[in-house]
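Why show two proteins at once? Because comparison is the fastest way to build intuition. When a single record is shown, students tend to memorize it. When two are placed side by side, the eye starts asking what differs. So, the first record is below.
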Amino acid sequence: MVKPVSQGSSAGITNKSIVNNLEELKEQVKTITQTFSAPALVETFLPGRDFSVPMMGNPPKIYPVIESNHTTLPKGYQPIDSLEVKWYLEEEGGSDHLVCPPKIDAELKNKIEDICKKTWNALNILDWCRIDVRCDDENNPHVLDINSPCGMIPPAISMTSYFAFSARTIGISFEELLKTLIGTALKRYSK
């Protein structure tokens, strides 16, 4: 898997990000470094399930986890949350691959929540973030990246902005979510 060392919203992550040989690796690293004027990150591709974990508060509360079910993507799409998936497929009403909350057993749910809480604490994250997690072939979750701050687009513009999407599944409106975020930061500053 080849991607930019930093960016957001899946910039630089495309169908060509999963490489299978040295030639593809060299070409994708070249594309990333030239496009973003920064180094490329090369990591082992994890073939398991893909989750986004929204968190808010000090200490954090975990909002409903979102699974990207890549088995429902159209033919030709790689099983990743690529730029094409996030900004073309999802925004054109194709959000069927987003499952919130996902069907996961208690053991996997606990592992995901545990690794996200440990990541939050290790990085001293404050107020809110979204942590992307993907499982290996033995169903062990690994942190892919931390989105802090993460995108939060109003539903009038995007129905698939992950944090707001998660909150809506438990009856929290976008406005309520913003108030909670502001209240979280104010509470921290008032101490």
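Second record. Ask yourself what differs from the first in the token line.
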Amino acid sequence: MRWKPGQIAGILVWALAHCSAAFAQNTPQQAPQQPLRIGAEDDWAPFSSASNGAPLGMAVDLVQAIFAEAGVPIQLVPLPYKRCMEEAKAGRIAGCFDTLPDDQLRKDYRFHAQPLFSDPILILARADDPVVRLDLAGLEGKKVIVTHGYTYGDAFEAKRTILRVSASHDVNALRMLHAKRGDYALVYQRITDLLLQGEAKALHGKIKSVGPLTQASLYIAFSRRYPGMENIVQRFDAAHARLLKNQTISKIEKRWN
């Protein structure tokens, strides 16, 4: 039997269509990318807090913008800071913010290249304290109120002669300082300003800053046990660099100033 050219073309089209359909049926469909679960501290306004279960704050906006630029879907999970860090360390979530790295934390977590933001940690004293200026060396032998679970940089952590007094929250650190349960307290500048305007308004004028402990740079602490984090951190760094260059980061920060 002699085939005509038109018949041959028709048979080829039919065969290709059926092969394509069979291939599609036997090829597993790629599952949609699951959101990366990131812990967001739930009680650290204006940087990261929660309202009705939803995270909000300057750091929240920064993290969302960077991951959106990286093309990585995320789910932010509001958590108390200590639990947030424990969940990330165990690999149950991909990371936690906001964290000031120190030598121990660098062993337990991955950190991205550039900080999310920075803020001074203030050395706070009672208003009637005669001290005008103080630095880290001046805290040796003193009772210093710190917030439970927070870190204050390698230099402070190495000073074992500083007598640490633990407060459950920053606002309680201010109250404990006023109640003379410590000589000094360490609280971030913008946290202090917000608390003295709101929750701790009664202490306004009764507490003063006697100097910065350090200019703290804050990061996401990425889990070392969560799968695929090396690639995620690389994508985060590249996206972060682009947003720093095009001024998106500075625009977000200005909205919160």
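One difference worth noting in the second protein: The longest helix spans residues 5-26.
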